[in-house]
Amino acid sequence: MKKQLMIVGISFLLLAVGLSGCNEDNNTVQSDEEKIIGKWIYSVSISENTVSLSYNFSSNKMFQSINLDNGKVNTVNGTWNIIDNKLLIILENITITNDYKFSNNNKTLTINDDTGTMVFTKP
Length: 123
Description:
Number of strands: 8
Shape: globular
Order of helices and strands: HHEEEEEEEE
Distance between the termini: 62 Å
Radius of gyration: 25 Å
Largest sheet: 8 strands, antiparallel
Number of helices: 2
Mean pLDDT: 85
CATH superfamily of the domain at 37-121: Calycin beta-barrel core domain
CATH class of the domain at 37-121: Mainly Beta
């Protein structure tokens, strides 16, 4: 009887130790630089014309904008950075400073600049 009780006790102890790792908090907080990496799509219809814009932010800080307007494709390359909670997009000799905000579980990116607001989604 003592042997069975000892085996049951050891089994419960091993089970408790094994399950103690299950309560770990696996929710790591992503930095904004990690959240922004990837492809973001913006689309708007003006009259009967749809303008699509995609921003591609790569992990090596390269930036690419692809604009599809009335069947014409325009591609612009540059770099990007986030400094002091501002998104900086650097295109040749121009630096565009943007306010930005993530929402919808980091699937929506709202960018505000001098020209207005654009809401991008991650496909």
